[in-house]
Amino acid sequence: MNIPDSFRKPFAVLIPGIGGFLAILLCSLIGDAAHASLLMAPLGASCVIAFALPQSPLAQPRSLIGGHVLSTLIGLSALAAFGVHAWSLALAVGVAITLMQLTRTLHPPAGADPLLVMLTGAGWGFLLTPVLLGAVLLVFVALAYHRATQTRYPTSWW
């Protein structure tokens, strides 16, 4: 079916929003069924990048998953080593940015992970759920969604 561009264009802005909706819905439903949280606020921001900017290097699985895992690990380590202070919060975010750049896992929403971990007093289990499993599920939803919408994603896995 040939849909005119004048009709298709206004609806094109809905596509990323629908993708984000589905990703968060599935993370929530699967998490509820498994009695585990697969959601954290930075994953909502990750949806913006994964669904609205799927060709961006920041949206690729390596960056999305790796950035969240690395930044959370830094937050957990800083919390265990230093506790919560203005300087340790700042240090954790700065180290997360630096290491994401060095490891080619730069993902801006992951910059919030050390703050989230430290301000909530999260335990080491937070690294698995919601961080790792939530990020992996988000990538798989993005992969399926972009295939269904005929958008190239990912542009690279590694």
TrEMBL record:
Pfam families: TM_HPP. The chain crosses the membrane at residues 12-31, 37-53, 73-102, 122-145. It comes from Paenibacillus alba. Residues 12-154 form the HPP transmembrane region domain. This is HPP family protein. InterPro entries: HPP, TM_HPP. Keywords: Membrane, Transmembrane, Transmembrane helix.
